[in-house]
Amino acid sequence: MQWTQLEPGTLVTQRRKLDFGTVVLRRRQYQTAFRGDGVIPEGRTLFGLTSGKPSTTRWAGLEVSCDDIATTRGRVDVFTRAPETHYAIVVDDNAFRECGLPESVCETLKHVPSCPSLVRSAHARHLRDYVRGLLEPGFFSGWLSKTSACKNVLWLLAAAVGTDGEPLEPTRPQGRRIAAVRLCQEYIEQKMADAVTLSDLSLVSGLRPRTLINAFEAVTGTSPMAFLRARRLCRVRTVLESAHSERIRIIDVAIDWGFWHMGHFTSAYRTMFGETPSETLSRCTRAR
Question: Are 149 and 108 in contact (CB under 8 A)?
């Protein structure tokens, strides 16, 4: 997964994981807006839920409510606009039969689309509440075994996604906005170190600058140029955190990712991450 912090602050403050082998549950509490993108390994399915706060999360450009389940067997594409708690259920294809579920249930859960999708279901809240309870520290000191808990999760998934789940599709205007934003994101990834302007992105997307800004804010919660700067800052931070020596020249890393004015770069970096680039480099190299 690739994470892009979009606002100043600490991105992840609490994490918890419960591994059943073929089913893995995760909870992450985020304290600031971010984008997450990546690819789910082949043979696995991701089901995601939010804590229920309204209008804070976008999945593949669509707003996620407390009654929605995000699904994918391939690409991950999530944005948040504010502090939020996300729950993820990653299921191996073999999990369904190992838990003794009927064949019809297995096939229902295995035929989730490869692309990011949303399913609206009355069972989504029950699923989230059950997963939340399982992830509480010390839960399995009680009467329920992990085998039973894993089977219960899969049954709840089958009820939510297969029994009464309603696939959500973007409207035509939403689809156009999402497509335009994705084109810009792909262009930004390719031209990260170059001089990218709003006019460039307007040409790429086929939208007027003001229309593009509105589309970007509707899908991601931020403007195109703010997103570009955040991606660059996160790339710099990743390089500094993985550096094996304090001898690395921060100015070289900054220029590699499109920052040409060191004063502006340092100020933006400190505002976003709460420390200077040199402090990041020193802290991480000392830790190693």
Answer: no
Count of residues for the chain?
A: 288
Tokens of 142: 């009680």
Alpha-carbon span 252 to 124, nearest angstrom: 48
* Helix (H) or strand (E) segment spanning residue 145: none
Task: Evaluate whether 212 touches 224 at the Cβ level (below 8 Å).
Answer: yes
Using DSSP bridges, classify how beta strands 23-30 and 12-19 pair: parallel, antiparallel or unpaired: antiparallel
Segment 179-194, tens digit of pLDDT: 999 999 999 999 988 8
pLDDT in tens, 39-67: 988 888 999 999 866 668 999 888 898 89
pLDDT in tens, 263-288: 999 999 999 999 999 999 988 887 66
What ranges in the chain are assigned the alpha helix state H? 95-98, 103-110, 124-134, 146-157, 172-190, 198-205, 209-220, 224-242, 250-256, 262-273, 277-287
Q: Angle 262-273/277-287 helices, nearest 10 degrees?
A: 60
Q: In what order do the strands lie in the sheet with 57-59?
A: 2-5, 34-39, 75-80, 57-59, 62-63
Q: Who contacts 222 (Cβ-Cβ below 8 Å, separation ≥6)?
A: 6, 33, 216, 230
